[in-house]
Amino acid sequence: MAIKERVKGMGKSSVTIFDPGSNGNEGVEDPGNEVKVRAESRRFTAKYKQKVLDELKEAEAGEIGQYLRKHGLFSSHITRWRRQAQKGDLFPKKAGRKQTRDYKEERIGQLTKKVAKLEKDLQVAKTIIDVQKKLAVALGIELPEQKE
Hints:
By secondary structure, the protein is mainly α. Among the domains are: about 40 residues; about 45 residues, no CATH class. It contains four helices and two strands, in the order E-E-H-H-H-H. It has a two-stranded antiparallel ribbon. A hairpin with a 2-residue loop joins strand 1 and strand 2. The longest helix has about 35 residues. It is rod-shaped.
């Protein structure tokens, strides 16, 4: 292998390593050296988070930073996990689709609206009957008696 240095300008240079006995694939990168375009976020289990929080409760003030460095954690992780633990969100919810509706409550709401509408219609019907009775009395028309 040989090293070739290029001067770009303004004192900057780049170094290229190439193999003179190569098969002409100098521009092709080694797939083992690929860098991911987007890094994946680490995922911590609820059990691990709780273990870390318990261990940090017992740690003294000077030991917390050392513990975080040892385990590759940041103080923002701990802050977020403590907030989640206070809210009760540290442990995951039940798996599966979240139920967005309570069908019983929805049905009760529908029936309540229907009852209100029917009561309003009944009040209108009673008013109409009262007006008809008064009109019949004014015109001198006798109405048959109704049993209630």
